[in-house]
Amino acid sequence: MTEAEAGGARNSLVRLVAAVAMAASAMMACAATAGAQTSTNFISRQSQDGIVGRQSNDDGIRRPPSSLWRLISNAGDQNANDSKPQEAVVTPAAGKVPAPVESSTKALATSDQTPADVAATSGADDPLEPFNRMLFGVNEAIDMVVLRPVSLVYRAVVPSPMRHGIANMVANAYAPVTFANDLLQGDPEAAKVTLVRFMVNSTAGFGGMVDAAAAAGLSQRYEDFGQTLGVWGAGPGPYLMVPVVGPTTVRDGVGRIVDIAFNPLTWILWYQPHEVQLAPYMARLVTTHESVMDDLQALRKTSPDFYASVRDIYMQKRAADIANGVAAQGVLEPINPAGTLEPINP
Q1: Which long-range contacts (CB under 8 A, 24 or more apart) does 130-133 make?
Q2: Which tens digits make up the pLDDT trace of 196-232?
Q3: Looking at residue 125, what is its pLDDT?
Q4: pTM of this prediction?
Q5: With left for phi above 0 and alpha for psi between -120 and 50, is residue 51 left, alpha or beta?
Q6: Boundaries of every domain in the chain
């Protein structure tokens, strides 16, 4: 390919991405306008509890209304880490070394627990908890006023098959980041699967809209540099709540910055307007929030301390991601190795 042909191909790609970005921006603007009344009604309902931005259940416990905690923690990325083989401790060349769970919470919060009970069972490193709770409230307001109305309108306007295809495209665009981290984690087999998936879905899958590789048995995977640092032995560091971004740790925050450099779209769109540069991240934000907002609603209603529940679930999920789904060092022994049931005394 000559230099002129390469330049023409690059310009065509930039124009295509720019067109998609502008379409996404227009859709989000329309969604925000159409969702303004929804937002107003939602705030009005929350104000009836006496405190805007909180909910009150029959048990009398005050709860924050929503969260961005899973938005950038890739809850909607269809992560297949939990489907990885349950193997004993292995060397980095063959796969990740399972890491200890970073939160000692033994179970999710239930409605009969008090916030003090939840705090007592949490092993998360959260020295900035008062400050984090304040930023958590900021994220709650952003979720209530902007993200939830936009997601509701997006769900109402865009048919489910189209939403699924857009989510597939967003996930496929992240494949180069997963590929780079597969290599850095010493897992060439996983890197090969990621590369083949990206090539198949980008061609036969119409740019990733159809997950054609899944039909061939190539499951989707997700890796980031925060996980890579964990595989290398770096601890999570203090827990942080970041405006808009949501929950993270020092390690994962550094990882996010490196992943931006790993993403080819960062460089393809480098000289484009800011709204075009941000379009891929906004698309990921909206599609992910739409896919998890019902779960957030359910968690909000059942958790005595929504902040603590979000923190502990995030820490447990990240530990499981680093360990490739293995919850602890090694494999759990069966409850009854003999395979027989003991009689139960009345």
Answers
A1: 132/239, 132/240, 132/241, 132/307, 132/311, 133/241, 133/307
A2: 999 999 999 999 999 999 988 999 999 999 999 999 9
A3: 87
A4: 0.63
A5: beta
A6: 64-322
Single-letter residue type at 150: V
CA-wise closest residue to 325 among 164, 152, 87? 87
Please name which of 11, 39, 15, 31 lies closest in space to residue 282, comparing C-alpha atoms.
Answer: 31
The answer on pLDDT for 253 being more than 80 is: yes
Spatial CA neighbour of 72 closest among 244, 278, 222, 271: 244
Q: Give the span between the Cα atoms of 179 and 82, in whole angstroms.
A: 18
End-to-end CA distance of the chain: 80
Q: What is the pLDDT of residues 313-327, one digit of tens each?
A: 999 999 999 998 654
Q: Is the dihedral of CA 314, 320, 321, 322 positive or negative?
A: positive
Residues near 176 by Cβ (< 8 Å), separated by ≥ 6? 198, 262, 263, 264
Q: If you write DSSP's letter for every residue of 103-121 in order, what string do you get?
A: ----S---TT--HHHHHHH
Q: Which two tokens stand for residue 28?
A: 């989000």
Q: Long-range pairs for 29-32 at CB < 8 Å and ≥24 separation?
A: 30/153, 31/149, 31/150, 31/153, 31/154, 31/157, 32/146, 32/149, 32/150, 32/153
CA 322, 323, 325, 327 torsion-angle sign: negative
Rounded Cα distance between 269 and 278, Å, is 9
Single-letter code of the amino acid located at 281? Y
